[in-house]
Amino acid sequence: MEYNIFLDKILKKDNINIVILGNTLDQEKYAFKIKQELINYNIIPKCVDKEIKNINEINNEIDLLILCMNPNKEKLILDSCKLKINNVLIQPGAESEEIINFLVHNKIDYINGCILQYYKLFK
Asked: Which end of the chain has fewer surrounding CB within 10 Å, N or C?
């Protein structure tokens, strides 16, 4: 599926639940920049790593999980996740064969790309 179509079907819905895996407190990190961009578009993501310590503290299924950290750490989080994950966006540098295998095995739709590039289309 084309990148923009993949994100359009998710981000243009009301009441979406987006989760970012990554350091959203450090202004130098892409996870921080992604969080700020989502907030600019009135989407308030939940952030797992420095803000929420355990992904299972989130109450609802995840419409979009944005992977933005070391793939080894991501895999540990995904392995422990008890929530339904509908879609995953893998940021550059966050991909690994293990992550892809996990997503395919669990029949989770995913795409590789940078969400910041998607939002540049709207400016």
From this structure: C
